[in-house]
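[job 4417] fold queue: 2 targets
>>> target A
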Amino acid sequence: MRTREKAAAAREAVGQRLREARHAAGLTVRDVARSLELSIGTWSAIENGRTGVSDERLRAAARLFTTDPDGLRGAPPPAPRGTWRDFPPLRLDPPLAGALEAFAELGYHGASIRTIAQRAGLSVPGVYHHWPTKQHLLVALLDLTMADLAERARAARAEGDGPVDRLTLLVECLALYHTHHRDLGFIGASEMRSLDEPDRTRIATARQNVQRMVDDEVVEGCRRGLMTTALPREAARAVVTMCTALPQWWSPTGPSSPEKVARQYVDFALGVVGATG
C-alpha cells in the first residue's frame, strides 16, 4: 500500500473509533462540535476520515467521551500488569512525569510550565508542543489516577464473598494505591479545587463512584447484621478518607511497607464499621 493510501486508511480508522466512542457516550455530532469548539462540518470530516485530528483535539475528545486516547489512536493495549496488588513503575511521558513531580512538591499553582519542563528534561516549547496548558497536564494525571484506581477497585471487590470480605479487599486496594502511587494520590486529594469545569465535575463523579463501592458494602453489611455502625454511609466515607489521607504522611523510607499499612488499615476500617466477625 502506498504512503498516501496508508495515511487515508489510518484517518478512516481513527474516525471510525471516534464515531463509535461518541455513540457510546450518547453524544451527537452537534454536541461534540460545540464542546470542542469546532464546526459540525469539521467534526463530520474527522469521523469520516476526510481530515486528520491533532493530538490535542484527540485528547480533548477522549476526555469528553471518558475513554483512553491511546485506544482512539489505535495504539496496542498495554501489557497486562498482573493483579490489582501489582504496582510496576509508572511509565509516563516526560511532560506528565515532570508535572507529577512538580505538582506533588510545589502544588499546582506553585508549579510553572518552566519548572515542569526542567523536571521533564525538556524546553518550555517542547512541553507546549504536546500540552497546550498546565491545566491539560493536571486533567491528564487525574484521569489516569481515577481510571487506574477504579479498575483496581472493581477487580478487588470482585474477589470478595460477602460484604465484609469485599470491604476488606476494597480497603486493602485503596491503602496500597495511596502508598505505592502516593504522588498521584496526593494530587488527587489536594488539587481537585484547581480543576476547571467540566473536568472538575467529571473527575469528582469518578471519585464518587469509587466511594459508592465502599458505601454499598457497608450498607449491605449493616442490613445483614454483619456490621453494627448506626451511620453506614458516614462510616464508609470515614474509611475512604482515612485511606486517601495516606499520601500526606506515609513515606517509602519509613518503617512500614505498603502491605503492612494496608493490613493495619483493614483492621481500622473493620473497627469503624463495627464488623462483627
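>>> target B
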Amino acid sequence: MTGRILYAGFATPRHSGGVHVLTQHVQLLGASGYQAWLWLPTARPDWIDATVPVLVGPTLEIGAADLLVLPEVPIVPGLDPALGARKVIFNQNHFYTYAAAPGRVSTGSDQTYPGWSPSPAVWAVSTESRDVLASLLVDLDVRLVPNPVDGELFRPGPPTGPRVSWFPRKRPREASLLARLLAVDPRLAEVELCPLTDAPRTTVAQTLGATTVFVSLGHSESFGLPVAEAFASGCLVVGYDGGGGYELFEAPGAWRVPEQRPLLLRDAVVDLLSRADELSELREANRAWVLERYGFERTASALDSAVVAALARPGAAATATHPVTWLDALGPNFTAYA
C-alpha cells in the first residue's frame, strides 16, 4: 500500500511563492488519490488555504512506505534529516543548492551531495534547472516537475488605462532606479506605475490582470513564476530572464533586455506601450502559450511519474527533523541581491 507523501515547508508569516508551490503539489497529489501532507514546524499561517492537509511539529515519524520531500535549502551536506527514510529534494532554485554551510562543500570530484542514506531523488522546476542539477548530481535521479500556473486566478481583467507593474524584491536598488526613470519620463505621464511589494496573492492577480507591460526583474531564478503568471494575465513582458527563466522568454510576447541597462529597459517599456494596441494578439497568445505548457494537468502528470519512481526507491522508518533546524546555516547574506 502506498504510504504518505510529506512535504517539508516553512510557516512564513506572509505569502511565499516556494511554499505555495508545495501546497499546490499537496493538493494535486490529493486529487490523484495520494495521502499528501504539508509538514510545518509551527502552526499554519493564515495565507495557506485551510483545505491543505497540514502536520505540525519539529520532528515527524516517517513510515517505511512514506516519501519525505525536502526543500533545497537549508541542506547541509552530510547532515541527514531522516536517516534511512525514502527522500526527495524538491529543488526550486538550483542557485541555492550549495547555499547552506558552503565551507562544507569540497571543490574536489569526490564530494558527494547531499551525503544522505539512502540517496534522494531530485525534482527540478525548469529545464535549465534540471540540466544544471543533472550535470552536478550525476549519481542522483534528477527529474523535471514543471511549476503550475493558475489560469483561473491569473487572467486578464476588465480593460483599464495603460499600466506597468513589476516586483522590486529581487533587485531593490535597480528597481528604485527604474521606478524613478519611469516616473519622470514625459512619454509615460499617463501611465499607471505599480510596484508590487508584499501584496496578497489576490491583489497581485488583480494588478497583473489590468497590466499592459510587466517588467521582469528576475535574479538568480530557477523558473520565474511571476513572469508565467503575467503571461496568464495577458501581459506583455520585458526584462531579465534570471537564468532559469530562459524558457519563458520563448513566449510570443516577451522581450529580453541586457542585464543592468536601465535606460534600455525604460525605452523598451515605452516602445511596448506605444504599440500596445497592435500587440493585443500577442497578449492573448502569451496566455495560451503559458497555459499549454504550465497548466495544472502537465504538472500533475509529471508529478505522478516522479512520485511513482521515488516510491520505488528504498526506504525505512525514521524520525525526521524539520529542515527549519538548519536555517541558520544559510548565513546573513543568503537573501542579499544586487
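[job 4417] complete. Note on B: The chain has a mean pLDDT of 94.
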